[in-house]
Design goal:
With about 290 residues, the protein is α/β, with parallel strands linked by helices. Helix content is about 35%, strand content about 20%. The chain binds 2'-monophosphoadenosine-5'-diphosphate. Pathway: Metabolic intermediate biosynthesis; chorismate biosynthesis; chorismate from D-erythrose 4-phosphate and phosphoenolpyruvate: step 4/7.
Length: about 290
């Protein structure tokens, strides 16, 4: 019998009454890769635990979190549109959450307090480091939404000089108020100014399959030879931006690594094991996309 490509690498563990529980709160949540990712790790490490999708309407968010605490969950990931509500409900906010202005990981403490963490930015940096790329020099980020803020904050914390450029200038200015030292580049000129940067990161959904502009392929004509081009979009694997970068023989970084690395902290906190990100996991999650 041939194995189904989506099969976990080891048989699913049967849950006992002591199983550790976590999940992802979102609305909708059906698109989330987090259940596939966490359950892969639970299987691999033979952990008595489960990670479930939790579709929750915004109006029921607080009630849902209190309910999860009441039934003994260890915590939860939080995805759109709940990241600000998660920030508000947390009793203790990590440095990462304060910098990002949002929370994507809730850790329920035994004393009933909730710790809020934002792991997206550090996940991005970890995915760079896993590819042997150092977060050094000057970064230019496309976009000024929530993803831009967490990546910008993390890169600043690693000592990079960071600028953002965004179609809607006011939004970029607003982000610069939240993150002191952040530069703002007009959307109309960023391609020409690219020569001044060591890292370019697309934090928008431009180039994403089914997104606002799947063909988004800016000019990298002015790029310096050492420019690293990163995309947080991971469907498709080779976005038009990354294809353009390859054409210019620039180093590239796809978005899947960030998704995998941002999940590690939650898994460690809830299930007590520091999980590995490797090629098998990447292939498994990609097959489930
Ligand atoms: P997230 O929180 O996931 O980053 P978001 O807050 O909706 O998502 O941000 C989406 C980003 O994609 C924004 O920077 C947005 O630019 P605007 O602020 O001008 O809306 C950017 N974006 C989306 N569609 C775009 C398009 N067609 N052209 C340029 N930028 C676009």
């Amino acid at each position: 019998m041939t194995a189904h490509p989506k099969m976990p690498p080891v048989p699913r563990q049967i849950l006992t009454g002591k199983a550790r529980l976590a999940g992802v709160l979102g609305w909708p949540v059906s698109h989330s890769r987090s259940p596939a990712l966490h359950n892969y790790w639970l299987s691999r490490y033979q952990i008595d635990g489960a990670y479930v999708p939790l579709p929750v309407e915004p109006a029921h968010f607080v009630q849902a979190v209190r309910g999860l605490q009441a039934v003994g969950f260890r915590g939860a990931n939080v995805t759109l549109p709940h990241k600000e509500a998660a920030y508000a409900i947390a009793d203790d906010l990590d440095h990462s959450a304060l910098r990002a202005g949002a929370v994507n990981t809730l850790v329920f403490q035994p004393d009933g307090r909730i710790r809020g963490v934002s792991t997206d930015g550090d996940g991005f940096v970890a995915s760079m480091e896993a590819e042997g790329l150092a977060p050094k020099g000057r970064a230019l980020l496309l976009g000024a939404g929530g993803a831009a803020r967490s990546v910008a904050a993390a890169l600043q914390d690693y000592g990079m000089e960071v600028a953002v450029t965004n179609r809607t200038a006011e939004r970029a200015e607003k982000l610069a108020e939240a993150l002191p030292g952040l530069g703002v580049v007009p959307w109309s000129v960023w391609e020409e100014q690219l020569g001044a940067y060591t890292l370019l990161v697309n934090t928008t959904s431009l180039g994403m399959e089914g997104g606002p502009d799947p063909m988004f392929r800016p000019s990298l004509r002015h790029a310096a030879r050492h420019l690293v081009v990163a995309d947080i979009v991971y469907v498709p694997r080779l976005t038009p931006l990354l294809a353009e970068a390859e054409q210019h023989r620039l180093k590239t970084l796809g978005g899947l690594g960030m998704l995998l690395h941002q999940a590690r902290l939650g898994f460690r906190e809830w299930f007590g094991h520091d999980p590995e990100v490797d090629a098998d996991l990447e292939a498994y999650v990609r097959a489930s996309v």
